[in-house]
Amino acid sequence: MPKSIQDLTDIVCAFADERGWANNDPNQLISSILIELGELAEHYQWKSRFPEFDKQKKLEVGYEFVDILFYLLQLAAKSGIDIEAAFDSKLPKLHAKFPVGQTDEEFERTKEEYRRTGKNKLYS
Ligand SMILES: [Mg+2]
What distance in Å separates the CA atoms of residue 21 and residue 8, rounded to the nearest whole number? Predict the structure, then answer.
């Protein structure tokens, strides 16, 4: 059954609430994201290409993605961040900043402009 980001957020927050974990502070959540990211990274460490995971490994790696998502969605929800709204707002700006067919020169000019001015077009 397809679930939206809001559906997943509701599930994750209810799961935490039911277990008395809803009072995790931001530092605990950020630390947990980084720890889980490290666990995910172990599956890719020293690999220069995407590995062809077997069925069991796909399950293990998938669970690490879920672990990260669990903490990330809680952090966003407790911070009052609506990820779906942020995504919808940011995507058109990313399209404008990195248009399809952009040459390497144009891409470098955009990066240089940001380096020089400190102005990120995404927020203007
Ligand atoms: Mg994990």
Answer: 17
